[in-house]
Amino acid sequence: MMKSLYSGVAGLKVHNQRMDVIGNNISNVNTTAFKASTVTFKDIFYQNKSEATTGNIIKGGRNANQIGYGANLGAVEQVMTQSGLTYSDIPTDCAIQGEGFFRVMDKVGNIYYTRNGSFHIDNYGNLCDPNGNIVLGVSGDPTNVDASSNRINLYVPPIEDKAASVSKTFKFDGDSYNYTISNRLVGPQGNISLTIIDLEDGETPFAVQNSSSLTVYMNLNGDYETVAQFQQAFDDALAMGDIDLGREFGIDFEFETLPWDVTPVKSEYTATGDGVNLILTAGEAGPDGDGFTITMATNANATAVDARWNDDTLTITIPASGTVTAGQIEAAIQEAAGGNKYKQLSVSGQDINAADAGAITVTQTDDGEVGVLQRPIRAQNSFTIGKELKLTFTAEQGGDKPNGYEINLKLNDKLTEPVARWSEGVLTISVPSTKDLTEADINKLLKEAAGDNQSKGLTVTIERLNATSGEWERTEGDTLTSTDLELIGENTYRTALTGGVNGFFKDFADAMDTVKLVDGRYAAEQTTKDLDQIYIDDDGVIYGVHAIHGTIAMGRIDLAVFENPMGLNQVGTSYWQPSLSSGDPEVKTPNDVGVGSIVSNALEMSNADLSQEISDMIITQRGFQANSRVITVTDTMLEELVNLKR
Q: How confident is the model at residue 243 (pLDDT cuts 50, 70, 90)?
């Protein structure tokens, strides 16, 4: 009878333990990546009242008579099935779709395994879990890097100094030209708006700064032959203004291509004489390779080729006997030039028999000039009065606008003085037949008619036909006499100015209008706080989007898999550690064979099934209740037994 009492107690204990597991499952029904557990019971040992016997031909066998002593805890198994995922607004939150565990390391080097991917980035750039332990994987660009067990630290490269600049394209004469305008200084003070305005003739170039804008007034119709000339004119205008945009402030212009050949040509020098014919070419093209003075002579006391520079003068001495090669001369010049690339002249030509060499002369055969930019072309045209007199009118300003002007010249005997008047694009010059006019008189008249309108400024030249040579000739101070003017008669001489073309830089400034220089910055250290965005792909690679660096790979989260994940030991706070049953971890990259993928902006939910847990709780309650009844019934029976003594 006492045996049933102990069986009931064993039943109570085991159902109580099962209730502990159920309670833990229900308690963690909303715990991220929690894995529920199940409980199985096992019966305990048995007492044999009689042994089993075998049967024979005359007697049957009997089964053993066994009485059990209750139930015991069989196993508490972890349910490691994949649970559902829930969306998260945090880009560093991760879930594993499939097999595998995240790995984190504490400060003393212990590694824990978890399915809870609720990660964050600390102030040092470490990728951490909620307990402050650092996630393991690869730091930096993980391309072609095997799975690793290093702490993940997200590093953002620093930004370098950068001067503000702007790059654009404009059209000139039907072709496109790319240009870049850049500040000479780094830093945000170079993020300015730049406007270039053409000056009237005779005005002094200058510049005006207003907050973050800069306006430069300069002559855009100058005959600039190179970018350097235009740059110098711009710098001169800048120097005339009260500019306060930083020490040594300046702006540089760079063109990818230009309308004419502006590629510097290397300067060449020819050494000639009896038995001497050499070509010496400057080491680099450009102004520093031009204008060298080179002398070359034999010397009876010399035993080897000698070359010496004195400023821009090169003296070459060769022995007066033996053979001297072009290579020997070049080697001596290269050594003398040292690090000056312009003075490292190359030498080509025939070998010199020094004994037969006569006087050697070195002349510059190519001065290294560069091509010129498209200059402004002034509109021009002329008409001939009679057969021997020609008046040529020229616009003072280059460009297309003067091309549309029409000039009329006629007599008016009602006038005593000449008159010139503009009517939109038509200039009418009326002259009396009785008034002699010099070239200066007419030019004065044209200037008065133009007034302040520079684009209507015209000049005139008077030419007469040379009967002997048949050429038109201009005589300084030539005068149109009344005889010349009578040739006009009742006719009106008309001509239109043609051929006017803007200069390259005039069109450039017009097309540029106002430009904004941007991206000027100082060098600075960068952290993950300076990233515009962080995201993690399904391969576990962590990317950062930076305003300057663009998209950079900063690390990779690697996963671990086990032969028997149900055998892992739970250590709390959503951590597991390996056991003899689970086997050792195998570290792999996400999406590898047998490994799940990473889902960012998501977390794995608990796989505890609330409906199943409540059902198990009811069954456990009834089992506990029944075992308690075994105890109370046994107690009643014992009470009856004790009462027999009465």
A: low
DSSP 220: T
Amino acid at 103: R
DSSP symbols for 217-243: EE-TTS---SHHHHHHHHHHHHHHS--
Phi and psi for 616 in degrees, rounded to 5?
A: -65, -35
- Identity of the residue numbered 499: G
Would you state the structure tokens that stand for residue 145, as one six-digit string?
A: 């890097």
Q: Rounded distance, CA 494 to CA 384, Å?
A: 10
Ramachandran quadrant class, 193 (left: phi over 0; alpha: psi -120 to 50; beta: rest): beta
Strands (E), 173-305: 175-186, 193-198, 206-210, 213-218, 251-255, 268-273, 276-281, 293-299
Torsion of CA 179, 183, 187, 193, to 10 degrees: -80
pLDDT at 201 exceeding the cut of 70: no
Write out pLDDT tens, residues 398-407: 777 788 899 9
| 73, 99, 295, 328 from 597: Cα distances, Å | 37, 8, 77, 69
CB 105 within 8 A of CB 151: yes
Nearest CA-CA partner of 78 in 39, 131, 121: 39
Phi and psi torsions of 209, nearest 5°: -105, 135
Q: Which residues contact 573 (CB under 8 A, 6 or more apart)?
A: 131
In this prediction the pTM is 0.60
Identity of residue 90: I
pLDDT at 422: 93
What is the end-to-end Cα distance of the chain in Å, rounded? 20
- E-strand stretches of 287-405: 293-299, 306-310, 313-319, 323-324, 346-349, 352-353, 361-366, 378-385, 389-398
In 3D space, the residue among 406, 412, 418, 505 whose CA is nearest the CA of residue 458 turns out to be 406
CA distance 472 to 508: 37
Distance CA 129, CA 348 (A): 72
The predicted structure's pLDDT at residue 246: 53
Q: Which stretches of 241-382 are DSSP H helices?
A: 326-337
Q: Are 194 and 538 in contact (CB under 8 A)?
A: no
